[in-house]
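Components:
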Amino acid sequence: MMLKEKFHLLRYLSDGIKSDGVLLDKYRDISYEVNTIKTAEGSCDLKLGNTHVIAGVKFEMGTPYEDTPDEGGIMINVELLPLSSPDYFPGPPTDKAIELSRVIDRGIRESGAVDLKSLCIVEGEQVLTVVVDVCAINDDGNLLDAGALASLIALKNAKIPKIENGKIDYTQLTKDTVKLKELPITITCYKIGEYVFVDPTTYEEKYYDSRLTITTIDDSSIVALQKGGEKAITISDVDKMTDLALTKSKEIRKMIKK
Amino acid sequence: MVYKKRLDGRKFDELRDIEAKVGVIKNADGSAFFKIGNTHAYASVYGPKKLYTRSMQDPKSGIITCKYNMMPFSGAGGRVRPGGNRRSKEISMVTENVFKDLIDLSEYPNAVVEVYIELPQTDAGSRCCGICAASLALADAGIPMKSLVGAIAVGLVDEKVVVDLTYEEEHYPEFAKDKITSEHVADIPLAFIPGSDKIFLLQMDGVISKKSLIEALEVGKKAADKIFDIQVKALKEKYNVEE
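Structure:
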């Protein structure tokens, strides 16, 4: 038996809109501010409709891996703060939080966006690790795309702190930024019944059949994928979703390049 | 030389710039943002709702739980590891104690009101900032309570009582521009019910004489009244109440 809620949702979708009235292939309004957090080396406070996230960048000193002695590290961590939704609770990271962290991480890592060699201090001994923490303030759906975008913008605006005698001086930031070679944009396409759309609210997220997260770079290459949901998707779905993701990512890339 | 001019040029009884906003987190039953200088706090309230942990249930009244947490990028130094530590546990506990006697949950047996406080950035005074935000969020959630709470840190910097210390003042011997007479800095977070001398939070670290302590408490009381005015204004703004 179909849930009453899902039945209503399908009626919205058949009219070409999501439950909040936004067209299937459109995002809600995106607004953001950069470097509002004084204690972070870079930050982005981003709102996507009623979804609100803050991404902050912190640098840490570490030792390189043996097989990459001249490369620094990168880590993305998503915190589903219990403050942001009645469905989140204090405690260790949930499966959802780990998936979000890893999928955002994959897009940025695999695109080679961050020049890890530029984070090397002393080869084989000391390298910087850049950590991006994404904190949810209000979750009204699509934390993945919002978090990925906020992470990228925070990274783009991060300043490397001064390093003295092998230690980080957090009180002094240099003019050096993290050099981004690519701008990987993460778009998640959702499918309910026969309908494909982007940017769900929590309402659509509750009843979706399947989803595909697609991260793409400027030359239209795909750098990361993640299929989610219980139902199968077909090759023609992938075809359609990739086209949609490419169109959307171009729009968003244009917005943040300004 | 006794502390003559504050490091950021404020008067000794002058608070940093304060901004308060109510209803900032749509998912929550009540929420607020409170900012004092470079210390910012979000607070959200969920409930009253059913408490599923049987051992914590009280058949006579609902209970309140508070969680204080610093976001990983909110500290002046390196990254704060997520997941909490001894400090955040203690602050959560003293925050809970501030509100226990002020709210009335007798209408909600076996229920819980959850308060979550998150700090995106800090520059001293974070527990007080969190309490100010939480107080507003509880009011926004319509939780029956006796009063709002104004929380503020006072202290002693180089033998002078000051209000609302910054990180640099808390570590004054490191940052002092003049020669100092006393190495001691006292930091006293306080929470008052406005217009009264009822104290619901009192902690101190450092060294202070009894005379200075009482003086500091009086200064804190006045500061809490100022915070109360700002809190009331923020609530009126959300609910469109004319002055």
